[in-house]
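Q: What would this complex look like in 3D?
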Amino acid sequence: MSEYIDGQSSRSESVGIVERKFFTLPEGAGPFVLEGGANLSPVTLAYETYGELSPARDNAVLICHALTGDAHVAGYYSDKDPKPGWWDLMVGPGKPIDTSRYFVICSNVLGGCTGSTGPSSINPATGRPYGLEFPVVTIGDMVRAQRLLVEHLGVERLLAAVGGSMGGMQVLEWTVRYPDRIAAAVPLATTPRHTALNIAFHEVARQCIMADVNWNRGAYYDGEKPSTGLAVARMIGHVTYLSDEAMRRKFGRRLYEKEAFSFGFDLEFPDFQVESYLRYQGSKFVERFDANSFIYITKAADYFDLAQQHGGGSLTEAMSRSTCRFLVVSFSSDWLYPTSRSRLLVQAMKKAGLEVSFAEVEAEFGHDAFLLRNERLFELVESFLEHALAAERKRTETAPREVWG
Amino acid sequence: MRFDLQVIASWVPAGSKVLDLGCGTGSLLEHLVREKHVTGRGIEMDEAKVAKAIGRGLSVVQGDLVAEVMDYPSGFFDVVILSQTLQQVYYPEQVIREMLRVGTRCIVSFPNFSHWRIRSQILFTGRAPVTRELPHEWHDTPNIRVLTLKDFRRFCQEMGFVIEKQVALDTDYRQEHGHALRLFANWRALYGIFLLGKGQ
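A: Here is my prediction, written as structure tokens for the whole assembly.
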């Protein structure tokens, strides 16, 4: 997700001042066993919540963030905070994911670097940051940790999980892994698995980091960071998040603060606006993200394969595990996870007899479209959640009541 | 609700599973869900209409109905509806076969090209007819198939589709009240609605 998405909603419409919280798995529960076989302990997730959990506990909406997002989905940390959370357009009072109706939860994924346990956390065995000693985590591991957090917050069953890109993968994982614990799902701009092209882009980005002399096989926490490598990795990501048309419109061949070509390779003053933009994106990113987290999380997304992991190779089999209602949305200019990927999901959901709605939303800005203002997207998410809540309330009304004593 | 849709709705058993191909903004499906407690699904091509139908709480997939209908398991639905769209479909036989594969019965409706006003337009003006029901000029029409009630009955016979019920309407589709024709239907009907089954 992009750095340029900021300050697009005014402070008065925001959920207001929010606080980042932490949840650590109780020690008595034993270590957290990862899909790769390793044990991880302790495990902490950073999270934020907005709105109130209803007395029936039926209005919880989990938001799953994309590759480089965090728990701070909406609101501001202080009065002076210049920038709201990454999806402030979507989440807040009166917004599509209305915090006056829903109890919104967003957590930073396992392996992340903004408060959750990840490669920059201290390894209790050595007293130093894990670095490459951190075990590889998967989307499944992220979701299993999220579930423990959700339970800790007193939520037995989510009304919905919503997320785009890698967030959409987590949403899908939720629906097949915990079908009884989720009523509705909104996977946006996502895919049931990475193609070779998707993996290739991630690998090039990882190699940028690993080629940085400061990377030092992940052990850089007490010295210079592999900032150049991480910035370049980010630039590659950015190119894939936009589209040919979006870049042409946004930058064209315009020059950056100059009248003519410089005929050189000035590191501070590039020729083209697009060069300057990418460098800015890269430099902003290194301020807030850990290079090792980036390589771990991109790997988790590459490993994700819904059909293989839950359906013995069949996507329909995998989706048949799910029982919830779906709203799948793709964006017309997204070439990273194009509409054909979403259609694969929808096809499997239809074959599995699930209640699925699908729309390909006309949008300009490529893969990043799900993060931007888009009235059609807002309208879809808002009405889908409203109906999901109504259906969920009807379901619990008609469900056999528990008999006490 | 439009009179032709009321007729269609009256043929749908309560509590059944219904697929509406080319469901538009979902008014028929919504009516069926609300009044007849059906489990409804829809397919629609137009993004804005899909959004409106989803806004009604319906499960609607955006896409081409010919391709989308193929994903459903055989016998999944009780009734599959193709309302006022047959005249726009490239392969009507294939589509109706698919409808009868995924559903037990299907309902097909279309404008009747042998209505006396259409016949007289060709006869007296010598030009391709333009009516309220078929409002497009020959060069910009989505209606690539022009057919009559008689044509459709014959088509069903040839293809082995069993017509279980049929109704001819002379009601403008925008009206909410109307009645079924009994005499000279092929001359007088603006629309035909057919309920097809698989037979033996």
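A: To summarize the key features: The first strand of chain A starts at residue 21 and ends at 24. Residues 21-194+310-398 of chain A form a domain with the Rossmann fold fold (CATH 3.40.50.1820).
Q: Very helpful, thank you.
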